[in-house]
Amino acid sequence: MGKHKSKHRQVSSFELEGRFLRLDLEDGYKLKWLWLATAEGECRIKLSKEARASVGRVLVPGEWLQIAGEKKVDLMTDELKLKATSIRVAVPRQTEGGAVARMVEAGNQRVSVKSKASVLVCQKSDCMKRGGRALCRALETALSDRGLADQVAIKGTGCMKDCKAGPNLVVMPGKTRYSRIEAEAIPAIIDRHFPPESITNAVESTVLTPLSC
Q1: Which helix (H) or strand (E) holds 102?
Q2: How do 168-172 and 3-5 pair as beta strands?
Q3: d(CA 73, CA 11)
Q4: Most buried one in 16, 86, 103, 193, CB count within 10 A?
Q5: Of 114, 145, 160, which closes a domain?
Q6: DSSP E strands: which ranges in the chain?
Q7: pLDDT band at 122 (very low <50, low <70, confident <90, very high)
Q8: DSSP SS3 for 91
Q9: Are residues 109 and 132 in the same domain?
Q10: What stretch of H or E contains 191?
Q11: Whether 140 and 77 share a structural domain
């Protein structure tokens, strides 16, 4: 793996394996970061255009991924930044002492909680051009108005296929898919899938299993 060093920064390549946790958005609609549960803890990895294109489908929380890319270390502050250039779905490998197995078990517990209530929104260009950005804004508003912003996550995804039917979104749990959705329909969808009593009961019956970073 290549490596070079400037006066204040060291740049090299990296490869990581772990359980996919979630995707984070920037500005409410732009797919920006991926969170991965590794044997050492949770890592936030910035996504390049190449990485987003390499996935080719919607990532499912709990899937095992192999990620490669560029690692930058600030020699003054020891700050570490990871940027993915490729993402592959793979099979977990067992390590000495069962570290991977233990991490996978903990990661699955964490993922099962986070996947209980979420809305997946396609972030590919076709869906964005057909109203995806407006959908994200409408989702944020609807969840905030109902006091659900901390209980229902908005997650950007790669291509969901059927681009001509965009914008596309999927409501979890249940994997209910909506296509050709307009922003005005979002409040009714939120009320249908996340009535207040169901969200409250789910939160009260759930125990988080934290992972160290």
Answers
A1: helix 99-114
A2: unpaired
A3: 6
A4: 103
A5: 114
A6: 3-5, 9-26, 30-38, 41-47, 64-74, 80-89, 118-122, 153-157, 168-172, 176-179
A7: confident
A8: coil
A9: no
A10: helix 186-193
A11: no
Distant-in-sequence, close-in-space partners of 144: CB < 8 Å, separation ≥ 6:
none
Q: Does one domain contain both 8 and 110?
A: yes
pLDDT at 45: 92
CA distance 206 to 31: 28
**Residue 8: phi, psi to the nearest 5?**
-120, 5
Residue 162, in any domain of the structure? yes
Q: Give residue-wise pLDDT tens across range 172-200.
A: 877 888 988 889 999 999 988 888 655 54
> Kindly report the CA angle at 52 between 47 and 55, in degrees rounded to 5?
125
Domain extent for 153: 118-202
Beta pairing class for 118-122 and 153-157:
parallel
Of 41, 4, 37, which Cα lies nearest the Cα of 22?
Answer: 37
Collect all residues with Cβ–Cβ distance below 8 Å to 5 and sequence separation of at least 6: 11, 75
Full DSSP string of 137-171: HHHHHHHHHTT-TTTSEEEEES--S-GGG-SEEEE
CB neighbourhood size of 132 (10 A): 24
Q: Would 138 be classed as within a structural domain?
A: yes
CATH number at residue 188: 3.40.30.10
Other C-beta atoms closer than 10 Å to the C-beta of 81 total 14
22 shares a domain with 90 = yes
Residue 155: both structure tokens together: 């997650």
Looking at the structure of the chain, the number of domains it has is: 2
Reading the block at residue 210, the tokens are 């934290």
Residues 27 and 109 in one domain: yes
